[in-house]
Amino acid sequence: MDEFELIRSLASRLSPPSADVLTGIGDDAAVVRFHGGKLLVTTDTMVEGIHFLESTITPHNLGYKALAVSISDIAAMGGSPTVATVSIAIPPKWSFDAVGLIYDGFNEIGQQYGCDVVGGDVVAIDGPLVVTTTVLGRAETPVLRSGAAPGDILFVTGSLGGSAAGLEVLLGQARATPVSQAILVNRHQRPQPRVTVGMLAANAGVSALNDISDGLASELHEVAGASSVRCVIEADLIPILPEAKEQGRAMGKSALDYALYGGEDFELVGAAPRHAFARLLASAGSTGVPITAIGRCEEGDGVVMRTAGHLEVIEPRGYNHFKR
């Protein structure tokens, strides 16, 4: 079974949650009723050799990125992060100084987003370095993946493809200019969770949100499956980072693949009724983060893309643990 089948199988072994659990397993974060409000809870793990190599990220940026991944989940619920716990399993080859730099990265992004690191755990391990982050957040009206409806506009924030292209640079596979390479590496190592835009989206009344961790194709399939709709996107509307386009041309490959299947952009993809999308555009104008309509929801299922005048089925080919 693949990652998502395993999650469903493991979840089936758990008892039904209590009445205070408003949204359990299956979204970017759980939603729990807490003192009259709504508490968001999410956890992520990064494993050396799977999610990163010593050659592809500095210790400081590893801490920054690890916490950014969980903060992005809170953003995808339309919430704001409040506190975090972090746990590290440290192998002998990682020095205490390097681990200290990881914590400097935690601290930098925590201060940037108002998310205090309040605890965690540190253990020794004979295997690879493992970093686990848990973030708690707040949301007045959490936005789930399951709210999209036929007729909704599909949109994304920012631009896509930069992280996957940046990983190629770090692996020594890229052929773009040095300036472009620096921009792409920064996109891979230091993602910017869209917390402010996520909160504005919730206030505007968008119907669904998801963060782009495993590639746009995979995330759209999650929205389509959770909402029981078909996502129809336009290839020429997908905003791709110019430097990723440059690298794609230099590599003789489609930059669209970076956006659809590369992952780790940590932008938001969402669905919204027309009036809610208009409100979001108006309110997000001051953030400096572009919001781009890329298609719409229809009755049906799955994800299709219109390109060169014809429709093609888009498979969820983003990163998937356990899938061979």
Structural class: alpha+beta
CATH class of the largest domain: Alpha Beta
Radius of gyration: 19 Å
Please indicate the percent range of residues in DSSP E strands (runs of 2 or more). 25-35%
Q: Name the strands of the widest sheet in spatial order.
A: 8-10-7-11-9-12-13
Which residues sit in consecutive blocks of at least 5 with pLDDT less than 50?
Answer: none
CATH superfamily of the largest domain: PurM-like C-terminal domain
How many distinct helices? Answer: 10
Query: In sequence order, what are the helices and strands, one letter per element?
Result: HEEEHEHEEEHHHEHEHHEHEEE
The residue fraction in helices comes out at 25-40%
Provide the descriptors you would attach to this structure in a database record.
324 residues, 2 domains, 6-stranded mixed beta sheet, 10 helices
Give a structural overview.
By secondary structure, the protein is α+β, with helices and mostly antiparallel strands. The chain folds into 2 domains: 18-138, 2-Layer Sandwich (60s Ribosomal Protein L30, Chain: A); 145-313, PurM-like C-terminal domain (Phosphoribosyl-aminoimidazole Synthetase, Chain A, domain 2). The protein contains 10 helices and 13 strands. The strands form 2 sheets. The chain has a 7-stranded mixed beta sheet. A 6-stranded mixed beta sheet has the order 1-2-3-6-4-5. α2 (59-75) runs parallel beside α3 (96-113) and α2 (59-75) packs parallel to α6. It is globular. The N and C termini lie close together (9 Å). The model has no long low-confidence stretch (mean pLDDT 93).
